[in-house]
């Protein structure tokens, strides 16, 4: 007679419920982050509007980024970013701008600009 090599438990294990005590909800920091994000969004809007409306600015940014001239790209974008710090990353297909809050570093906004074909 063939015996199946695995054994079966006669009764399924009872589920083990673990109740976590979660901290009390305090929305103040969340609300402050939302308020701070408004400044980052203003910077993002002014930067994207400038790039959209000026072929010369867009060409200058693309040429500097393709040469990996981070200082030049930073100089070109600094004019439009007033309420936040920012960091730049280049890819062969585009530019990534990370806006970070000046005062508390509670908020970040990442913008990805593509100039290559997908």
Name a few traits of the molecule:
118 residues, alpha+beta, 3 strands
Write the layout of secondary structure elements.
Blueprint (H helix, E strand, L loop, with lengths): L27 H26 L1 H12 L3 H9 L5 E8 L2 E8 L6 E7 L4
Antiparallel strand pairs: 1-2, 2-3
Helix pairs in contact: 2-3
Task: Tell me briefly what this model is.
By secondary structure, the chain is of the alpha+beta class.
Net shape? extended
Unreliable stretches? none
User: How many β-strands, per DSSP?
Assistant: 3
Profile the largest sheet.
3 strands, antiparallel
Structure description:
- The chain is built from 3 helices and 3 strands; from the N terminus they run H-H-H-E-E-E.
- It has 118 residues and is of the alpha+beta class.
- Helix 2 (55-66) packs antiparallel against helix 3 (70-78).
- The longest helix has 26 residues, at 28-53.
- The termini are far apart.
- The model has no long low-confidence stretch (mean pLDDT 85).
